[in-house]
Amino acid sequence: MESSTPVCGVCDQNHIIKLSTIWCFECDEGLCSKCKDHHSRSKGTRKHCTVPINEYLKIPCDIVKINQTCGKHNEKYTIYCKKHECLCCGSSIVENHMEFEQSLVELSDNIQIIRNDREHNLKRLSEKKRKIEQEVKQTRIIINNHLDKIQDDIIKKLNAIEENENMIISELLSVLKENEGEITEFRTNIENIKEHATDLQTFISMKELEKKVLCKDEFLQSVINSENFKDRELSYNVNAAMQDLANHIKNFGEVKIETRPCNVLLTRRKNQQAQIMLPDISSKLVENINLKLHKTINTIGGYIRGCCMLPDGKMAFSFYFDIAVRVFNLNGTKDFKLVTPTFPFDIAYISHDNTLAVTSGDSETKCITIIDIQSKKIKKTIPVDSNYFGIGVTSDGKFICSAAGKGIHLINPNNKSTIDIVREEIPGLCYVAIFCDKIYHTNNQSNSVTCSDLQGTVRWKFKNESILRGPSGISVDNDSNVYVVGELSNNVVVLSADGQQYKEIATAIDGLCSPMSLDYNRSTNQLLVSNAHSKAMIFTLI
Predict the structure, then answer these.
(1) CB 22 within 8 A of CB 5
(2) pTM of full prediction above 0.70
(3) Contact of 447 with 462, CB cutoff 8 Å
(4) Looking at the domain that runs over 1-66, which CATH code has it been given?
């Protein structure tokens, strides 16, 4: 017992060895009988918690070994900080938890950050309001122009019909007048014959006149029986849709407010570089993406399903019902046209051999056609087992394709092997894109855009029918922002890399009319957008 009993801490400082009789937890040392008496009377220690030494020795060693003194300041721990989950001495409190000045500076900075964000939001609201007003006015102009056109058409038709009927009746009146003159002449002749001719002459003349009168009578009867003698009346059947216009169309559209997380960065303890509400970096970029029209191309044809930009600035389009691929020069003139063995759906550029890959959609013959751009001829066709619609090309020349009813496939054109990446009963008319280790595809039935990794695991899905309907063509820029064309919403929408942020960057005002496909050129930062009919546009990002 004596060998394990600690010595008195106070006596030990005086180089006197005495065994302790009590233990003070707050002083963290033992006291002998003499020192115990002074300890219990002293003002600074009289309230300390003590226990007999034999009770203290019963405490497990692990508990006794717990350090109660701050190793940095050599001061006794006084409080426990819940935030940092650690014990603190008085100096630690002052050093790490009483930085009020710094907190006030940070608070002021954060207020300014929030103010700037809200002011920027006000500016965006004003700009969006102006853009919506322009779109409403443009819609009104389109409607007015269309109504003016169909009004002019019906008035022209009315005038033409009335003029034709007037001509028919006028011609009949002219013939009747001519016959009326001849009959008057017959009557005059009869009077003269009666007065001056002999009986024989009268008899013979009357017989001749009777024949002529009979002919005239038969003529009048034929006129009465003819179609031209039927009564002519103009009638007008108004288009029911025009009558119901006011009843069925109550507004131009719907205006509403959509909320989303703010791109606000608030600092906490600048020396620790702690941050909250930190969005993905690329998400911040979405709000700053804008398009400027660079060039308009007359594509000379209809039902374009796919498009892509080539490194030299040329553009390739797949004309589905024309069963052809057309390539245009940078200035918009046609370079060449190539008839394909199937209905061409989507089209993609293969960089390592300067060719184009074209899918066959729902054609009876299922294949991927490879076109040599240099020779302007079909290089080969690759037979496949599925109806492939959208197509993208990996960095090593493999194909990512959307298979109707099956999902997303990875195809090796060399050995013709196929790997299922995404197993999903997707509809036809779905487009795909690939960038880095992510695959993106659209679904025009569910109005959604999905991002998956190369193992097919869904990373995110975007669906907002108020901004994007009938998503079709899809492409990705260098920051992993995703560009999607909405056929039914008649717009282009850019999504952030995490799928959380979005922005409408092109509408009908910019020339979009049933847009079907697009392609982003990562070298020039230009976006090619193709309408289904007659026109495509190249936009530059600003």
Answers:
(1) no
(2) no
(3) no
(4) 3.30.160
